[in-house]
Amino acid sequence: MVKYYVLVILMIKCVSCEQTYDNDEIVYTCRKCGSTLEVDVDVGVSKDVFNGRKLGLWKYREFLPVDYRKSVSLDEGGTPFCKCDKIGKDLGIELYVKVEGSNPTGSFKDRGMSVGVTKAIELGVDTVGCASTGNTSASLAAYAARGGLRSIVLLPAGKVALGKLAQAMFYGGEVLSINGNFDQALESATKLADEKYIYLLNSINPFRLEGQKSIGFEIIDELGWQSPDRIILPVGNAGNISSIWKGIREFYNAGYINEKPIMTGIQATGAKPIVEAFKNKSLKINPVKDPETIATAIRIGNPVSYTKALKAIYDSNGYADSVTDEEILDAQKLLARTEGIGVEPASAASIAGLKKLVEEGVVDKGERVVAVVTGHVLKDPDAAIKASSKPLEVEPDFNKLKAIIEKKIN
Ligand code: AN7
Hints:
It is globular and about 75 Å long. The strands form three sheets. It has a six-stranded mixed β-sheet with strand order 4-5-13-10-11-12, with helices on both faces. A four-stranded parallel β-sheet has the order 8-7-6-9, sandwiched between helices. It has a domain of about 200 residues: Rossmann fold (3-Layer(aba) Sandwich), CATH 3.40.50.1100. It is built from 14 helices and 13 strands. Strand 7, helix 4 and strand 8 form a beta-alpha-beta unit. The model has no long low-confidence stretch (mean pLDDT about 95). The N and C termini lie far apart (about 60 Å). About 35% of the residues lie in helices and about 15% in strands. Helix 3 packs parallel to helix 4, helix 6 packs across helix 8 and helix 11 crosses helix 12. By secondary structure, it is of the alpha/beta class. The structure holds ligand AN7.
């Protein structure tokens, strides 16, 4: 018989001035100081309560601030946790890769959307919306369909990878193509939310981030209730690094772990306001006006969760750095061709960054590192095709086929 008590104090709290808001208030940023908000969750429960439950987001339901019994779920989370000995050995570290592309719509956003859409229904709203570089919109459209809600998504015109666009459209999202970049699309979506046309499910929404903290939970759980030395991941709008750190803090506060990992965020050189702030030891960013990178998912110049992300980095004795498009594409290929893990370009930033930081001596030899790879290779088929050699055309003639196979094709 498992004995435990659960104490959940639910409040929305400003991360800068600590102003609090009621759990059922629709509020995205602090009305007093303008900063971002987080849901304050205080849980006292023995980790034995998780025994026998299937790995996944809702395994940790005591830590999630919505009603589990009414959850809008597609069985998200419980993603592969692959030990990568070949790349690990080359880098002189113990490497695990958390493969978030195996979520229902192919990215980590599903964890957040499950909680976010559940919250939307609890609040009684009928329309959800977001701006997106692609993955958020795919996930939102799917979970809105599952929850029976209308969804409106704003995408930067011509800049969304094909797989993501196909998903957003096909799941029934009302897709608006904005003549501008992601940051401008988000400004428009925020205005729609302020006027109550949509319940905004970008990562500015603190309930969505509650779902994403489960990446941190699963990593700890899968390492046998131990912290890795480091978690490294790509950073765009900076919600994910913030929420994983929140999850880590909650498991630490609950007494499940005695150490915490070094949080390490990687951006693309053409979109690296967080890296610049980190180099200047600042808690403020200078937005990048015209962000550019092949990794369209993280082509973001004005990340909304920068305060949380920089706090996560500073509080964990962490690090932030950037990688070039070339380094990203090389890492994407390396991961696919060495370990069989196919990710979209943005996701490969974590591997590219890890390689760079090992070479620079920032990552120590022998470290136990978890690299989070955030989205599936099929999200961006154009990038995958461009990075590969063309299929050879061969007549259905065995001798011709043999002659070709006897040479190496690639
Ligand atoms: C594959 O879909 O912002 O730092 O609108 O799709 O939490 O923003 C996507 C972001 C990393 C960055 N990897 O995460 C969107 C969007 C992939 C992503 C990120 C995104 P955050």
